[in-house]
């Protein structure tokens, strides 16, 4: 990509280089350094690029890593900071946003370094104090956050995902631990048993089950979230319309982050948290009558957390699994769905280069194949089937894609939205 300057530009692509431009050198493009030089570019470091773009090093970057909860935690922090009067920007799974305005569409969870610097440049020009970003394990492993100085790093949890890339949970944990190994300010979920390691210097903890710096002493999840929160700045009662224990973890992380970074008054924080209504595609209610919920959960742990939070309801669950990704999670997802669902409808997610039926068969290997399991590879037909099967007191839960607006088949992204499909079929 290119970032324009007064009389030149910065790029991270050697093919875009010409005399007088700047090539920002990163670990991921270092092998193209000579090519960039031969095309006439001046080689600069990430730090030199920040100075060239006028990015203020005082902008506070908050980085959230973990298998699940990154997006909701990031959005809770971002929107709460804005409610409290702090100009903020965000980058992550849902795209990039500058004080409530979208500035870039969805792409990678964590952008390449130069793209992130472009977001930081815009945030700096707008006068933002905070830049909140999701940090994926791929980005850590590929050094896509090199040169960024984090005011706070947050770890949410580590559960099975991305083993197609990392090959083992041990390697996955090692990569996550790398992000948490420095002396920067950190906030760690100590209830997690995923095996990550972190540098204890400047580390704070949060928990629902153990003694920690930020904790929920008692809570009620029957109708939203009500909890008695313990913090270094005192105890207070929390109320939120979000659902489930996993969202209480996300809210606890957000509360911890804000209290570590700002001297805010507890009543103002409580009110700002209460006003946060969640993220599109994360436990999103897209219809009340009938009750239809869409969620991004696409891992065994993610599915378990969502369905457990809704276990008091009669559930019809629609789900699939992505192609060209970790295959070992597929039967586990099937087993979890059947554990909670009155009816499980197994369908296609983003099959990519795989045959949808092959993925479905591997999901079903973990299920007891009886009349509570229905197979329908066409996702729209599966959603229609789920709606048609709903009784008066049933809830339809559609998992895997959240607010994604495409389905990837053989390298082509076709427009598809679970939410739009539901509203179309219900004629809402």
If you had to describe this structure to a student in words, what would you say it looks like?
Keywords: ATP-binding, Cell cycle, Cell division, Cell shape, Cell wall biogenesis/degradation, Cytoplasm, Ligase, Magnesium, Nucleotide-binding, Peptidoglycan synthesis. This is UDP-N-acetylmuramoyl-L-alanyl-D-glutamate--2,6-diaminopimelate ligase. Its EC number is 6.3.2.13. One of its GO terms (molecular function) is ATP binding. Residues 64-257 form the Mur ligase central domain. The chain has 428 residues and is α/β, with parallel strands linked by helices. It has three domains: 2-52, Udp-n-acetylmuramoylalanyl-d-glutamate--2,6- Diaminopimelate Ligase, Chain: A, domain 1 (3-Layer(aba) Sandwich); 56-275, 3-Layer(aba) Sandwich (UDP-N-acetylmuramoyl-L-alanine:D-glutamate ligase), CATH 3.40.1190; 284-425, Mur ligase, C-terminal domain (Protein-Tyrosine Phosphatase, Chain A), CATH 3.90.190. The protein contains 14 helices and 23 strands. It has an eleven-stranded mixed β-sheet, sandwiched between helices. Strand 1 (2-4) and strand 2 form a beta hairpin. Helix 2 (46-53) runs parallel beside helix 4 and helix 10 (300-309) packs parallel to helix 11 (329-340). The radius of gyration is 22 Å and the shape is globular. The relative contact order is 0.10. The model has no long low-confidence stretch (mean pLDDT 95).
């Amino acid at each position: 990509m290119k970032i324009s300057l007064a009389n030149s530009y910065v790029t991270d692509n050697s093919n875009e280089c010409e005399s007088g431009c700047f090539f920002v050198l990163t670990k991921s493009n270092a092998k193209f350094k000579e090519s960039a030089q031969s095309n006439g570019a001046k080689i600069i470091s990430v730090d030199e690029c920040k100075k060239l773009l006028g990015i203020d090093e005082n902008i506070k970057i908050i980085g959230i890593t973990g298998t699940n909860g990154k997006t909701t935690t990031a959005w809770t922090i971002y929107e709460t900071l804005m409610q409290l009067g702090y100009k903020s920007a965000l980058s992550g799974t849902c795209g990039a946003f500058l004080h409530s305005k979208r500035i870039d569409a969805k792409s990678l969870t964590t952008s390449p370094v130069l793209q992130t610097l472009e977001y930081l440049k815009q945030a700096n020009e707008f006068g933002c104090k905070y830049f909140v970003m999701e940090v994926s394990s791929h980005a850590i492993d590929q050094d896509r956050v090199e040169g960024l100085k984090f005011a706070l790093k947050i770890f949410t949890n580590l559960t099975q995902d991305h083993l197609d890339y990392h090959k083992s949970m041990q390697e996955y944990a090692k990569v996550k631990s790398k992000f948490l190994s420095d002396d920067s300010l950190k906030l760690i979920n100590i209830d997690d048993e995923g095996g990550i390691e972190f540098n204890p210097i400047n580390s704070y903890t949060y928990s629902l089950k153990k003694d920690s710096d930020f904790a929920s002493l008692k809570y009620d999840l029957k109708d939203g979230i009500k909890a008695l929160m313990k913090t270094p700045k005192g105890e207070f009662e929390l109320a939120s319309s979000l659902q489930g224990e996993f969202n209480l973890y996300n809210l606890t992380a957000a509360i911890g982050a804000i209290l570590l970074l700002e001297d805010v008054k507890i009543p103002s924080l409580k009110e700002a948290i209460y006003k946060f209504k969640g993220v599109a595609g994360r436990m999103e209610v897209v219809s009340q009558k009938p009750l239809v919920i869409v969620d991004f959960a696409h891992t065994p742990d993610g599915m378990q957390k969502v369905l457990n939070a809704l276990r008091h309801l009669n559930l019809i669950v629609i789900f699939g699994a992505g192609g060209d990704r970790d295959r070992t999670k597929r039967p586990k997802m099937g087993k979890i769905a059947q554990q909670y669902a009155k009816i499980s409808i197994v369908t296609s997610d983003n099959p990519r280069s795989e045959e949808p039926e092959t993925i479905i068969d591997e999901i079903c290997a973990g299920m007891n194949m009886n009349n509570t399991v229905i197979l329908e590879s066409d996702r729209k037909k599966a959603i229609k089937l789920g709606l048609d099967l709903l009784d008066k007191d049933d809830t339809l839960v559609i998992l895997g894609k959240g607010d994604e607006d495409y389905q990837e088949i053989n390298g082509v992204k076709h427009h598809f939205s679970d939410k739009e499909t539901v509203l179309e079929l219900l004629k809402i």
